[in-house]
Design goal:
Chain lengths: ~500, ~525
């Protein structure tokens, strides 16, 4: 269902020139490497081949003072990888803020009795005071672990998510973790995700992955009977229930999802992962590290897939099925056929309302590329996309998705994004909470593509229907036609369609 | 298949469908290694007991669900209340992403701030280069009139010296020599967001006032509102009252327009805020009044040092607190309180009299910033309610004493307890062991509402899950009317819900209440 279109590369190149001209020279030189206009995705080579035209510098330090949208390593570990593991207590170790601002904000859904056997939407902090900075926080951490055991005895383990000061004052959270783990006979995972490490969330993902390898795998006896169709879903954080809308499909095609990382996950699901037959990785950026490790150490193959939009879901289901052979392939065709009427109806309903609308994306992880075809399934056109914390391998993978002339921006600054949006005037922008309100003030519809704007799921067939509905309600709401007072009115650009 | 194009189900209904319920039940059973249901139930019931409360209150190190944020959030909020001012936070960049998100989620508005993006090398060598480059970029890109610098804990731990760094940056031409770059050190491991607010406002005043000659302008007043999630409604309401009185005043720090820009096609990165010239002139004011004492302790000290009279209030809300504020303003300005305001007061009292039977004897648990809790406790007592639990995670010993004094002043405060430094997990125990009718706080309170069944009224920053409340005033008599109505709505809605069962309880489902 892929759309044939080309973007206005010349306009985009001009916009890049314009924004660069506003920077101090030194900064312009550095930013220039992060901005580009893509050459046709059709001309993309084999996976892994670098397309110079789509190539931008990535995963390097943000420039001071430009208003980067990026977060930090702590956000990558506590906020993304570890935070969703529901039956463990995650201590935000350091001052109060980090844990407070990330408390309950990622919408990684789970089922459990919060505060009793699950702890996801809670904020545990060591609330560092000046004396802890001066004298160190190791003793305090020990006491905190005791108090957690006393008040939350049903926890299955604890992680220590280090905030900036921990690494600077020389605390030894590893030693404390080792000692206390022995004492309470539970898993304790120190994660060195101090916010100043690395250049973005990305290093936090990596450190969090390494912590799984070093502090969870092979630490306790795992009693688990494996089966031939066992898979782990890796890098699905169950935002608004994404992982559930994916799991239902994987189970329908005959697979057994023994672990979901890390949305709605339990420690047990992580511990037994090495016993699975295949790792299915959705968010490559945040969890490829541990998949590579499991491949090397346990010989478990891994496979990237994409559950956004019917084109990619079908292709992914078939790719996954092929790995397991004819029996699963046959079931897979039945599942695809079963959902096809739903998808046809959803597209018949929404495509006429969205056809030709242009979209700019700026997100993190996998989404700047993975969601592109979901929009295209609805007849929409992606004019620009970029990653908060992508690496070179992400941009390589992006080349397969984007069309000629697409504006590419890495670690975009607030200034650039505003100017690009003003210049392109897309019909929809998909980005984060910090971007939402500036864009809407310009009269441009917006959807948060980190939190699904408090909606979801967006994964799977069930999720695609929600996605289509949400895109429609964002673009076709009558409010966009009310921006101009009648006594100041220019020719109208607002339009609306009533919900059906 | 639960999903259909005709009626699309999102997460709320979708996962209640039988296919998903079964799937989740099997996931739990086969893969999660859960505790047995009885064990979970026993533990849940145990957390509701006095025994658990004692364990919970014996905690010394662990903090669970605190109701406070860190200093730089207050610094960013404070800086935002000045004309074309860009908040610049020196340290790790992730912090700034958090502050911006936090403010945007509450106000449903843009929140701009920049970071000096310090990483590991800066941790070793210091962040001077980050400051030099950062100021140059911010100045060039975002066309500010002022850049207000604060710090994250990272920069504080390594001991970066803002004053000398800014001087260095000016030497290197990052910004013009005479460009305003006030600063404040705001370590996250000291105090809370209210203190970050305090030192930032103080830093800005010092920047403009230091070494300047003060010529007292009699009768003029500075107003410092403090960190206030309801600044949009409150500041405008207070200005209306002051205008009615004809007072000559300056709001020092006013984010009411910045966090309430119109949608008309133009994105305004900066809007409103205290004019730089007005900040300079404010040195001459006869007095500086703080609307939130615990947000301005250091700032008011400084105002006294320069020779101004000062007075501070606790979030003037309700009848007597508003009375006191207006009387003080009148005394300093020499302006009389006009009849129109007396009538407004009478209307609030009228409303309270009309509804008193529904309010008398109600028990409340309150939490939030120290001044807000003081204000609410006082207003609750004015309505005949009892502020049974008054909790401020960032409340100090001085606050505790002041609260006790307030509570002792009324028979309705006799049973009340003050919880300085406690968190919302402590509040959870309190709501089980010493239950109340209503809980007043912010969005985080929804977990307490879920666990304990105590209805939550959201009147305090941050409010993420209800929209636009912050656009309406809580302060003044008009604000009191809104607080009153909000409380009453909660009471009536609950009563209606409890009495609405047809043929069972609906005899009490009264049409008129």
């Amino acid at each position: 269902m892929s759309l044939e279109y080309e973007n206005d590369g010349a306009l985009h190149a001009k916009l890049i020139e314009e924004v660069l001209s506003q920077y101090p020279d030194k900064t312009a030189k550095r930013r220039k490497k992060h901005l580009n206009v893509a050459k046709s995705g059709d001309e993309a080579g084999e996976e892994g081949e670098v397309l110079s035209e789509c190539d931008v510098k990535s995963n390097i330090k943000s420039i001071p003072g430009v208003m980067t949208i990026r977060g930090c390593a702590y956000a990558g570990s506590k906020g993304v990888v570890w935070g969703p593991v529901k039956d463990m207590v995650h201590i935000s170790h350091g001052p109060v803020g980090c844990g407070q601002y990330s408390w309950s904000q990622r919408r990684n859904y789970y089922v459990g009795t919060t505060g009793i056997d699950t702890f996801g939407t809670m904020q545990f902090t060591s609330d560092f005071q000046e004396k802890d900075i001066v004298f160190g926080g190791d003793k305090k951490l020990e006491q905190i672990i005791d108090e957690i055991e006393e008040l939350f005895p049903l926890n299955k383990g604890i992680t220590v998510q280090s905030e900036c000061p921990i690494g600077l004052i020389g605390d030894d959270t590893e030693a404390v973790s080792r000692k206390k783990a022995k004492e309470i006979e539970k898993t304790i995972v120190p994660v060195r995700c101090e916010g100043f490490r690395g250049v973005s969330q990305s290093l936090g993902h990596h450190i969090a992955n390494d912590a799984i390898r070093d502090w969870v795998f092979e630490k306790r006896d795992v009693e688990f009977e494996g089966g031939p169709y066992d898979v782990n879903v890796v890098g699905d954080y169950n935002i608004g229930g994404d992982a559930w809308a994916s799991r239902i499909l994987l189970e329908e095609i005959g697979l057994r999802v023994v672990g979901n990382w890390s949305g709605d996950a339990t420690l047990a699901e992580i511990e037994r992962a090495p016993k699975a037959k295949l790792n299915l990785i959705h968010c490559y950026r945040s969890m490829n590290y541990i998949c590579r490790h499991m491949e090397e150490k346990y010989g478990i193959a891994w496979m990237e897939y994409n559950f956004f939009g019917p084109s990619q879901i079908e292709a992914s289901l078939r790719k996954i099925a092929k790995h397991f052979g004819p029996e699963i392939e046959e079931k897979t065709e039945k599942v695809i056929a079963k959902y096809r009427p739903l998808i046809e109806e959803v597209i018949a309903k929404y495509r006429p309302r969205l056809e030709g609308n242009t979209v700019m994306l700026y997100v993190g992880g996998l989404r700047p590329r993975h969601v592109i075809t979901a929009y295209e399934d609805l007849g929409m056109v992606i004019v620009g996309t970029g990653y908060e914390f992508g690496h070179n391998d992400d941009y390589q993978r992006t080349a397969h998705y984007v069309k000629n002339g697409t504006l590419i921006y890495d670690d975009v600054t607030g200034y650039e994004l505003e100017k690009f949006i003003e210049g392109v005037r897309p019909n929809l922008v998909g980005s984060g909470i910090k971007e939402k309100y500036p864009v809407q003030k310009m009269g441009i519809p917006f959807r948060q593509m980190h939190s699904w704007d408090y909606s979801g799921p967006y994964h799977g067939y069930d999720g695609f229907a929600v996605f289509a509905r949400d895109v429609d309600l964002a673009i076709n709401n009558p409010v966009w036609g009310l921006f101009e007072a009648p006594w100041k009115r220019r020719p109208s650009h607002g339009r609306a369609m009533a919900a059906e | 298949m639960p999903q259909s194009a005709e009626k699309i189900l999102d997460h709320a209904p979708l996962f209640r469908e039988p296919e998903y319920r079964q799937m989740l039940a099997e996931k739990k059973l086969n893969f999660e290694c859960p505790h047995q249901d009885q064990v979970v139930t026993d533990q849940r019931e145990f957390t509701e007991t006095w025994e658990y409360r004692e364990k919970n209150f014996a905690r010394e190190a662990l903090v669970i669900n605190p109701a406070k944020a860190c200093q730089p959030l207050g610094a960013v909020f404070a800086a935002t209340g000045f004309e074309r001012t860009m908040p610049f936070v020196h340290g790790s960049q992730g912090c700034v992403a958090y502050y911006r998100s936090h403010l945007s989620r509450h106000f449903k508005e843009p929140a701009s701030a920049v970071s000096s993006s310090m990483t590991e090398d800066a941790a070793v060598f210091g962040g001077l280069k980050n400051m030099v480059d950062g100021l140059a970029n911010t100045y060039k890109l975002y066309d500010p009139k002022m850049i207000a610098v604060s710090t994250t804990c990272m920069a504080e731990v390594i001991g970066d010296d803002l004053h000398s760094f800014i001087e260095n940056a000016k030497e290197e031409g990052s910004v013009p020599r005479d460009f305003d770059v006030p600063f404040a050190h705001t370590p996250a491991f000291v105090g809370s967001h209210v203190d970050g607010y305090d030192v930032t406002v103080k830093g800005i005043l010092e920047h403009f006032w230091k070494g300047q000659e003060r010529t007292e302008a009699l009768g003029t007043i500075n107003i410092i509102p403090g960190f206030d999630g309801f600044c949009v409604g409150n500041n405008r309401e207070l200005k209306r009252l002051l205008d009615l009185m004809g007072v000559s005043y300056t709001f020092i720090q006013d984010a009411s327009d910045q966090f309430d820009t119109p949608s008309d096609g133009e994105y305004r990165m900066y809007d409103g805020g205290t004019k730089i010239q007005d900040v300079k002139n404010a040195l001459n004011a006869e007095a500086t009044l703080s609307l939130q004492h615990y947000n301005t302790r250091k700032t008011l000290e400084y105002c006294e040092e320069v020779g101004q009279a000062t007075a501070s209030f606790h979030y003037p809300l309700g009848v007597q607190a508003t009375d006191e504020f207006l009387v003080e303003v009148s005394a300093i300005s020499g302006k009389e309180i006009p009849e129109a305001i007396r009538l407004e007061r009478g209307r609030l009292v009228d409303a309270m009299a009309d509804s008193q039977s529904w309010l008398h004897g109600r028990k409340y648990a309150l939490y939030g910033d120290p001044d807000f809790v003081h204000a609410m406790a006082r207003f609750i007592m004015e309505t005949g309610g009892e502020p049974t639990h008054c909790l401020a995670t960032n409340g100090t010993k001085a606050w505790e004493d002041e609260m006790k004094e307030l509570l002792a002043s009324s028979p309705f405060g006799k049973e009340a307890q003050v919880w300085a430094g406690k968190d919302l997990w402590a509040m959870r125990s309190l709501l089980f062991t010493e239950p109340v009718d209503l809980l007043i706080g912010n969005s985080y309170g929804k977990y307490l509402e879920r666990d304990t069944g105590t209805p939550l009224i959201r009147l305090m920053f941050p409010i993420f899950d209800r929209h636009h409340h912050h656009r309406f005033a809580l302060m003044g008599y008009q604000g009191g009317l809104r607080v009153l109505t909000t409380i009453l709505d909660k009471i009536f809605d609950k009563l209606d819900r409890e009495t609405s069962e047809t043929g069972v309880t609906d005899y009490s489902y009264d049409l008129t209440r």
